[in-house]
Amino acid sequence: MVREKVTIEGNEAAAYSAYKTSEVVAIYPITPSSGMGELADFWAAHGEKNLWGTVPQVVEMQSEGGAAGAVHGALQTGAMTTTFTASQGLLLMIPNLYKIAGELTSTVFHIAARSIAAQALSIFGDHSDVMAARGTGWAVLFSGSVQEVMDLALISQASTLKSRVPFLHAFDGFRTSSEVSKVERLADEDYRAMIDDDLVRAHRARGLTPDSPVIRGTAQNPDVYFQGRETVNPYYDAVPGIVQEMMDRFAGIVGRQYRLFDYVGAPDAERVIVLMGSGGETVHETVDYLTERGEKVGVIKVRLYRPFSREHLLQALPATAKKIAVLDRTKEPGSAGEPLYVDVVTALSESMALGESKFAAFPRVVGGRYGLSSKEFTPAMVKGIFDELAKDSPKNHFTIGIIDDVSHTSLDYDPHFDIEPDDVVRAVFWGLGSDGTVGANKNSIKIIGEETNNYAQGYFVYDSKKSGARTISHLRFGPRPIKSTYLIRRANFVAVHQFGFFQTYDVLEPAAEGATLLINAPYPADEVWNHLPRPVQEEIIRKKLKVYTIDAYSVAGDLGLGIRINTIMQTCFFAISGVLPQEEAIAEIKKAIEKTYGKRGEIVVRQNFAAVDAAVAHMYKLEVPAQATGTIEMPAVVPDEAPEFVKNVTAMIMAGDGDLLPVSAMPVDGTFPSATTQWEKRNVALEVPIWEPDICIQCGKCVLVCPHAVIRSKVVSEAELAGAPEGFKTADARWREYPDKKYTLQVSMEDCTGCTLCVEVCPAKDKSVAGRKAINMHPIHPVLEEGRKHWTFFDKLPEQPHVDSVKYNNVKNIQLLEPLFEFSGACAGCGETPYLKLMSQLFGDRALIANATGCSSIYGGNLPTTPWSKNAEGRGPAWSNSLFEDNAEFGMGMRLTLDKQGEYVRELVVRLRDVIGHKLADDLLSTDQSEPEGIEAQRALVEQLKRTIQNDDAPEVRDLYSLADKLVKKSVWIVGGDGWAYDIGYGGLDHVLASGRNVNVLVLDTEVYSNTGGQSSKATPMGAVAKFAAGGKPTGKKDLAMMAMTYGNVYVAQVAMGASDRQTVQAFLEAESYDGPSLIIAYSHCIAHGINMAKGMDQQRLATETGYWPLFRYDPRLKEQGKNPFQLDSKAPKGAFRDYAYNETRYRMLAQSNPEQAEILLKQAQEAIYDRWQRYEDFAKQRTAETA
Amino acid sequence: MDLTTNYMGLTLKHPIVPSASPMSDNLGKIRQLEDAGASAIVMYSLFEEQIASESLMLDHYLTYGTESYAEAVSYFPHMESYNVGPHEYLDLLRSAKEAVDIPVIGSLNGISTGGWIEYARHMEDAGADGLELNIYYIPTDPFMDSAEIEQMYLDVVHDVKKSVTIPLAVKVGPYFSSFANMAMRLKQAGADALVIFNRFYQPDIDLEELAVTPNLMLSNSHELRLPLLWTAVLYGRVAVDIAITSGVHTHEDVLKGMMAGANVTMMASGLLRNGPDRIGAIVEDLKRWMEEHEYESIQQMRGSMSQRNVAEPAAFERANYMKVLGSWRQDPTGADLR
Lengths: 1188, 338
Fold this sequence. Notes:
Chain A is of the alpha/beta class. Helix content of chain A is 40%, strand content 16%.
């Protein structure tokens, strides 16, 4: 049988097999497993059928816990059921895993194995999650490559049906789940031959039915629970045999033979490594290399980890083995050893004790940790481990791949050891997310993988920013299946798609001697050399690189492609890499373009064809001089005045050298300094805003909306402006309170993303040139130097005091307050960050923030730097992220501490009146802190208190001293997106709102799971397309506000800054001042809406005008004043919902793909708007007695 | 009584045709127009810019922000296919042809001779009975002379005509130095009919916002005068069918158009204002008038008041213009004319 060769990701391979063999699929997004659910949803939406000729039900749940529950229910009623997850998601499923296994239920969960959040969250791959589930009674089968994922997914399905033991089918997150690889797709006949329908029917027959009722899920007591638990042993004993049987059956059908423990290496190996997952491929490759050179080494690739078969392990190990290193991709602090190590030691010990061992002497077994959070695992490290095993006393409990200068666990190895064969093309591409490099490379892999006999592999490394993000693509093409599950270390082709990278990264580091270098340079070919930094020139000469250059941006510009240089660079790659003959390559690229872009319209195809045709003609070979002649040096990553930690640690991470940081450099408990984004000047904007003081009305709108806090204003005296750099702009301050002062507005150009939201919101126009506003975009390069000087001077001007003659209750005044959230890596034009910045301006110096996992926790807390900042007094938001699901509770915990310790410290003040003085004590207990003035006064009193008691060593006094700051009012903010608030965290949020505690909940409502790529949530509006709602969401958005209002004692506001910044400010002030739970639901336009982000605020306005997003506030305090607590702040719907919705791709794409459905949903959505408005209007009109 | 008329080879039951407007942007409305008595339908216009921009926009937003960040390499689900702009249009045209019995004329709006012209053929393939090419160009470049602009018109007509076999109407504005000459050259380039005149976009200024605001005003009967003039002039001189559009609101307007020499009169503003049923009412008024005035057929009156057939051909020329001014000055109300 000829099976189709496809180039796909590991996630697709797993999803393909899972979908074929399922009737019910419950899904929930979590990186890096989301792709599996997305594909299952896509296939179901397009009517793809499973093995039995029917389309599976694919249902998104509200959490992984929910998905596991739904799966459990479906299994208990006899459906072939699956789900996909990772990391925290798997942890949330654990209670059900025990149940499903305890009930001997056949199912397979596919796991893109990922780190678990400990000292920090990490989205990357290791086995911590699967290991956390190893006690649940599930079989665990590990795949190490994309092909294995497809194969073992089927083998695990066949095995679970026969054994009745449920299976976790795991593979490494990212390294395998996201690697694109050429594999053989299993045919329907293969599935047919592997899946025994009698077993499927037996599974179905075990399902609950009232036609033959039984009960399951009983409660058992001390008399029988234990025995009940032991009933399953024979089933577990049978699993290894069954899995091997299925592996053998699979080999008979497909030809690929797997074993429970696959041994590769010298038959007489003395040193053996045991491990599982993708690292096994790298060890395999290294063992092949070393055995060819006579070394007696081998590797055991563990496939079936649970149930752990001692017998099969011993069979697989060569009898000659003297030293064994067992590698775990997980960390269990305080254990006797990591789990696989302990299992191997136990197996060997038992066999020795039983006298069954094949070894002459007990082999020396050591355990080691590697590859946590996708840490690279290379042949050099493998060689290092084998070298360690060669020693008389190899280190046990070692680590490899890091420098552990604290516990000295790490092994030394020679990082230059390299085994990559020369007949494999190894290409590294440096690009920006926005230039399309990754997409083009994915296309190239498909072309080469599917149109030639070559094997192909692609792996993509992204950085942690959402705007101006760097991408590095690693592509391999070769005559054999590629086992190199690590990044390319010695590339024979390097492409640098962004010229600026030469100054920020060591882009030529991976270039092998004699490699080809392709540069996209914004200069004529004969000027490119002189623009390269001198060290880069030297490296080019030293490595004898062949250099080609093209000005792809100008070619793309001429063709109307904007900044999308992907097709141009891809064509150049094919033209000079020689992977395919040029003509053939061009034909294939065009075919790929048709396939990728065809359905988006012919014009798109034609544009890209034109790019292909133009590319080669604009590429030039550079004559490399014999000497480096450049005058440009590499700039320092951070300036000298940066704090030590930033210079020593943060800067290393920023430069891409985080791998070189030793253990001692890292904080022990995940605590990092805040205010560090200021040192990461990313320079991603091509154009920046320039202020025109003569036109400006000083309204502060641009300052308010700037998502990255790069636009700031201050009011200062003439004297303070002394020494201002030339050209520093000011205007007379337009405040009654500041008659003789100057106003200045400045832009931190190096932190700007060029989003233009500021220009869009600016209401002031030049009376002579109406197109010119008070703030206008300007190309950055001519103004950057001056801009830097201006910013530096501005930054040092005094900050606006919180207590002053102006009140901070309107946008104009608030603009002057220092933001304590700045320069985040959020998307350019982000709709969330302006709200956070506003909160930080108003309350940041006394705010505690609990941040749900999601976009805001990523741009808020992803290394290397954090935007949460602090003021000159050292005060600022204290921020933490616990989990996705528990954020409301996490924030409430913060409140509980404040409440309890606040109570205790006040008790201490009373108890210690005589020590601290009666007046001070009374003042401390009676300050009204409802306004900034009171808070300032209380801070002064606390300082006085501290001075008074600082030398008193009495225990109670020390307690008072340690808690004194708690006498100052703090503000708890619980921040998260709609995925958290409406779905996974809703139960907790509801409880916290009901608690009556003084917390402020800010829901940044983007109406989808933005951070994981736009999956539908219960906040997704009717008619919008989202992942998991490809046919347009058929149901309406949950009215979270109304639900919260039913409590009666919760302050609730719905805001949209673009619709009314005044109402937004009002809501924030009221929510914070309310001594009880507050909920603000903030419309946050998002990249996942498919809009021009520059028009984000306009969309917010339209959302409100059309009645889709009414503005309102519900203030329980008004009831006490005999008023209606509900105030509708926006006007009745004006204009059609369509006029708002069809500015957004999420709505428009339904009209373009399914116009009839779009029309129906649009109509229903419009009706829902009128209904909701009517309800709100009635509510607002109710008399107080009715609402009270 | 015979109300039939012939328009570029199509026999229509009467001369009132809804012109290209949002009234034909979905099947329900198209059916409504037929039910209301329309003799043919000109579909709403497919714009050259729309052909390109919908695709480009879709491509842009499906791509924007993707492949940048490890957790979200894309933001939208895959779709099997998209009805981007032209496809949507062509699908509607195809369904309209199946749903109604009257002729359906596709409308294409553009100026360049690029790849978009192939949509003319696609419209023919979708079943269009005829094609209306709306050439809509505001020459803002002071360095572009009129000859160059006229040639652009002729080139696009030529290219469109070459790509289809169905009859082609060309809709233009009046702003040519020699409209009669231009009409003749358009005919030579391939136009089977002229649709006169295009109502050019004339934006307004919002004084509060200091913004240019698109603000298309609906026409009124006064606007009939200009097309009436040129219809009367061209009739019998240039062998091209003529559709009058702009200013047709009543049966009198239709009658004037026919007498000046038009083959059909097209309506949009009147129908947008009063609903599709206005067609039936005008047809009834038309019949009544013809009965009262003892006309037997439309054909009988067509061109009867053209410049060639009136007693005083100069009435359509400059001399008459002077007379009008004179008569206006004698207006008894004494209104200031400036």
